[in-house]
Write a structure and sequence with these properties.
Structural class: alpha/beta
Strand content: 15-25%
Largest sheet: 4 strands, parallel
Number of domains: 2
Number of helices: 6
Radius of gyration: 17 Å
Distance between the termini: 22 Å
CATH class of the largest domain: Alpha Beta
C-alpha cells in the first residue's frame, strides 16, 4: 500500500516508512490536480474540509487527528489492516530503498560505542543517511507497541 500525506504529518510518514510502506509527503499545496495524479495512494490528512474534493477525484483517504502521531499511526494501521512489523527497509527521511552495508565501510561515521554493539547497517544512497540497529531499536518497538494500543 502507498500513501500520500499532507506536509504536517512528517512524523507519521517516518513511522509508515519504518513499517516498509511507500510514503510521500506533499511539499506543494493540496490541489485536485495533485490528488488526481496520486490515485494509487491513500491520502492522509488532518482536515475534513478536503473530503468533498477527495471524493470528486476518487482517491482513498483517511482523516486523522492533528497532534497525536501515535493515534494517527494506530488509526491508519487498524483501518487499513496493515502489518505493524518494523521492516526498516526504507529511508525514514526520503523514502528511498535502503541498502545493506558493512559497518567497516562507514567506520569513520559511526560512534565508537555503536560500532562495537550495533548491527544491521543500512545506507540511503539518495540522502546519504546511515542507519543501524542499536539500543534505539528496542525503544522503537516499545513506541510502536504504545502507539498501537492508542486506538483499541
Amino acid at each position: 500500500m502507498k500513501f500520500l500525506l499532507e506536509n504536517n504529518l512528517s512524523k507519521l510518514a517516518k513511522w509508515l516508512r519504518f513499517l516498509g510502506y511507500d510514503t510521500e509527503v506533499l511539499t506543494s499545496s493540496i490541489s485536485p490536480q495533485v490528488l488526481s495524479k496520486n490515485q494509487d495512494r491513500v491520502f492522509i490528512t488532518t482536515s475534513r474540509r478536503w473530503e468533498r474534493t477527495l471524493r470528486k477525484v476518487n482517491i482513498r483517504y483517511i482523516v486523522v487527528p492533528r497532534h497525536d502521531w501515535e493515534l494517527q499511526l494506530c488509526m491508519v494501521i487498524k483501518r487499513l489492516s496493515l502489518s505493524s512489523e518494523l521492516r526498516l527497509n526504507l529511508c525514514p527521511e526520503c523514502g528511498a530503498k535502503l541498502k545493506s552495508v558493512k559497518k567497516e565501510e562507514f567506520k569513520d561515521r559511526v560512534p565508537p560505542k555503536a560500532y562495537e554493539s550495533a548491527y544491521d547497517f543500512t545506507y540511503c544512497p539518495r540522502c546519504d543517511l546511515l542507519l543501524w540497529k542499536g539500543l534505539h531499536y528496542e525503544r522503537m518497538k516499545k513506541m510502536l507497541s504504545r502507539a498501537l494500543s492508542k486506538c483499541d
